[in-house]
Amino acid sequence: MQDFENIMENIQMVDLKTQYENIKEEVNSAIQEVLNQTAFINGPQVKKFAAELKEYTGAGYVIPCANGTDALQIAMMALNFKPGDEVIVPAFTYVATVEVIALLGLKPVFIDVTEDTFELDTTQLESKVTDKTVGIVTVHLYGQCSNMEVILNFASKHNLKVIEDTAQAIGAVYTFSDGKKMQAGTMGDIGTTSFFPSKNLGCYGDGGAIFTNNSELAEKIQIIANHGQKRKYYHDSIGVNSRLDTLQAAILSIKLKYLDKYSKARNKVAERYDEAFQNHPKITKPARVKNSTHVFHQYTVRLSESINRDSFKSYLAEKGVPSMVYYPLPLHLQKAYLEYGGMEGQFPISEKLCNQVISFPIHTEMEQEQQDYIIEQILNYFK
Ligand SMILES: *Cc1c(COP(=O)(O)O)cnc(C)c1O
């Protein structure tokens, strides 16, 4: 019984504390080193981490910045998107993606997602393009790549820029039909990511990065992220102040070394869930995008329509099993973005998913007995 309570107490959506404890010495000494140097802004660790991340991802250039939302904004500024331009973006994603589009005076044009993989529905792209369309922001939701081959071909045919929001999928690998493999964030014109603590590569505060293979774009991005200046106090363009601070970079260098191990651990958890929910009448497990590996930022299932998700969630909470709904309301029905959508039934799959998805605990330190307990509780509900 004591063991049992212990298990329950420790179950979290993401267990950052245990993860930290397992790398504590390395992290503490890296932090201490920054403190000793007191180069809190633009210290050598920032360049070092950027170089390591470039090596890891295979991106041509990596420009660190303050967070994943800034990364998206800087990407669109660097691509010269102008007020009134239209940008295609999924209706089912985290708000940041559409927020910066609206903030820059661009027009978000929503597109629905596929019911099984939750990714942008490429079959609808054609119907979204007008003579004002300048780009597509695709989101590698929950940890696997969108159908990049189709998106890139479509974009090049219509002369559109592609931004990959890789905040949830760092390390995922996409294989093109010619066998070429590329990492999430390195395939489009620009890729963006977030190092928010709970992301797969998370720091201990805010952080983000921008990827590109284009040297001109890389320079532009660098300048925009630094107040539009190349030379201190000479401002060639309007920029922003968006930096990854040195402490975070030092922590990220350590965590990057473990990223593959972490992805493996997440996949193991996902596989065990998959097995448990195989052919379940009420739970549909997440489908895999063909050609992409999955890094399982989230393990998200669909419940059948007959299930009251709120009751299920409360039941799980009572059993000590946390769960989350990413996301409860699609973007076209959010108050702030009604002018770009606003109609129920407009994006039926996104709306349906918002009512039916639920994410279960998944993280790098999940113990088998914890997961056994979680699975048992979930399955018991439907007995
Ligand atoms: C987390 C996240 C962001 C934003 O990242 P921040 O670092 O919190 O600004 C953007 N897009 C997606 C899909 C995310 O999951």
Automatic annotation (TrEMBL):
In the record, what terms sit under GO molecular function? pyridoxal phosphate binding; transaminase activity
User: Which Gene3D superfamilies is this protein grouped with?
Assistant: Aspartate Aminotransferase, domain 1, Type I PLP-dependent aspartate aminotransferase-like (Major domain)
Which catalytic residues are annotated?
A: K199
Q: Where is the PTM N6-(pyridoxal phosphate)lysine found along the chain?
A: K199
- Which UniProt key words apply to this protein? Pyridoxal phosphate
Listed under GO biological process in this entry are: polysaccharide biosynthetic process
InterPro entries linked to this entry: DegT/StrS_aminotransferase, PyrdxlP-dep_Trfase, PyrdxlP-dep_Trfase_major, PyrdxlP-dep_Trfase_small
Which Pfam families is this protein grouped with? DegT_DnrJ_EryC1
* Family, per entry: Belongs to the DegT/DnrJ/EryC1 family.
Name of this protein: dTDP-4-amino-4,6-dideoxygalactose transaminase
The source organism is Cecembia calidifontis
